[in-house]
Amino acid sequence: MKYAFIKEVQTLYPVLHLCRVLRVSRSGYYDWLGRPESKRSIRHGLIATEIKRIHVRSNQNYGVVKCWKALRLEGFVFGRDQIAKVRRKNGIYSKRRRRFVITTKSKQGHEAAPNILNRNFSSASPNKAWVGDVTFIPTRKGWLFLSVLLDLYSRKVVGWSMGNRNDSVLVKDCLQMAIKHRNPPLGLVHHTDRGSTYTAEKYRSVLTDHGMISSMSRKGNCWDNAVSESFFGNLKNELTHHKTYDNREQARADIFRYIEIFYNRQRLHQTLNYVSPTDYEMLEAA
Q: Contact 217/115 with Cβ under 8 angstroms?
């Protein structure tokens, strides 16, 4: 370890001084430099290279377990403890997470639907239950609002839309995308909070036209829509919290990449036995 440290910093300090401080001989150090690299060192170097690749691909979000699972999916047989050790040695850590205040306010213009979902966040097949919500992302030019719909079966984002205002157009565009891409059967449970955009007659008429059953959280109870809230927490912790956007277009492009490239197709989910939503649906359909 001492010789390795000397090699690392020898361009900054004289080797003679480093050897004196660390109480090793110069001859021993130069002998060590001439030795072939050990198999263990080579293996650790390989592990470090693969860990760094996964770290970059996950936008620095994976901890030890997800990093280990991602490498196993690619055929690597490194041990979990070994990965943890190499991560520590190389100073590789996931981004720090923080809690976000839930800011949804209900301004009902119409009667809210009953809470039919009732916190049953599991689904045996696709397109049986969708959950949705709206959040906002700050930019230097103002807020960017994001509406999403997720399928409880795979946690996949099946519909999304972004806009400058939190209005009926925003949530309706999101719903129309989900309908177009998924073509859901009659009887799908559509769960959201009691926001006025969701209780609006025009929005609920779209649900009725497609045979969907409207379900809404109880007043002031964010846990009734925990899956949507969890998605927004991940989005902010893994992406937007660590960035300052100059304008809405910049934020829009970043969020598109997060949803369509990373979250739906690459991000490993513990609830899905550590595969991505897209892979989970493909595996279950096979």
A: yes
pLDDT tens digits, one per residue of 36-47: 767 777 788 888
The strand pair at 142-151 and 129-139 is best described as antiparallel
Entry pTM:
0.78
- Residue ranges of E strands in 90-238: 129-139, 142-151, 156-163, 189-192, 213-216
CA gap 87, 92 in Å, rounded: 5
The proportion of the chain whose per-residue pLDDT surpasses 70, expressed as a percent, equals: 94
Q: Torsion-angle region of residue 77: left (phi > 0), alpha (psi -120 to 50) or beta?
A: alpha
What are the φ and ψ backbone dihedral angles of 145, each rounded to 5 degrees? -95, 140
> What size, in residues, is the chain?
286
pLDDT surpassing 90 at residue 239: yes
pLDDT band at residue 133 under the 50/70/90 scheme: very high
Strand partners, 192: 216
The residues facing 143 across adjacent strands are 138
Residues 6+ apart with CB under 8 A from 254: 239, 240, 243, 245
On the CB side of 6, CA atoms within 13 Å amount to 22
Are 229 and 102 contacting, i.e. CB atoms less than 8 angstroms apart? yes
Closest CA to 102 of 252, 238, 217, 215: 217
Query: Structure tokens of 54?
Result: 């996964």
Q: Which of 143, 129, 112 is nearest to 218 (CA)?
A: 112
